[in-house]
Amino acid sequence: MATPLPSGLTAGTYTIDASHSTASFSVRHAGMAKVRGTIAITSGTVTVGDDLESSSVTAVLDAASVSTGDANRDGHLKSADFWHAEERPTWTFTSNAVKAHGRHLVVAGDLTINDVTQQVELETEFVGTGTDPFGYARAGFESTVEISRANFGLTWNAALETGGFLVGDKVKIALDVSAVKQA
């Protein structure tokens, strides 16, 4: 049975507006603080079908665009210890299922980081639609997911004298997406 679209969302192809969309992350540092940063969403498409099941999402992120507010840390994240940003400059997400989950949506798909692909489920909220000052129809979405760094081969770490490790394994990712409907 087909699940109807959220109220206000209409079928069509929406292009992710990179200048008005963000990907942010946070990870535990030294077992107590959190390091937060952003990575640019460079392109993507939200294809809204006549129902949720016929909808899909693709997105490309630029690993080299990482910004945590500390140039040394950003350089380390771009290095072979973490993201290999020079050799593997993009992260990708390609959905394979969209379904309703209470008031939210679950967008399941393949996330690829460092040439390692893992299935993830983005808890997604449809924020709404509107027309911008230039006459373009827009749709907004917010998504969250928690991943294990180790599952993507991101295993660099340093042991702490007091026990534990410098960088936590769990990474929380949040996406804020504005997409423009194509004519």
Layout of helices and strands:
Blueprint: E1 12-16, E2 22-29, E3 33-48, E4 56-67, H1 71-78, E5 90-101, E6 104-113, E7 116-131, E8 137-148, E9 167-181
Antiparallel strand pairs: 1-3, 1-9, 2-3, 2-9, 3-4, 4-5, 5-6, 6-7, 7-8, 8-9
Q: What's the number of extended β-strand segments?
A: 9
| Rg | 18 Å
Under CATH, the topology is which?
Answer: Lipocalin
Secondary-structure element pattern, one letter each? EEEEHEEEEE
Structural class of the helices, strands and pairings? mainly beta
Mean pLDDT reading: 94
Tell me the CATH superfamily. Answer: Lipid/polyisoprenoid-binding, YceI-like
Gap between N and C termini, in Å? 29 Å
Taken together, the total number of domains comes to 1
What is the CATH-assigned architecture? Answer: Beta Barrel
Helix amount? under 10%
- Work out the helix count: 1
Assembly type: single chain
Bin the strand percentage: over 45%
CATH class: Mainly Beta
Shape call: elongated
What kind of sheet is the major sheet?
Answer: 9 strands, antiparallel
Poorly predicted spans:
none
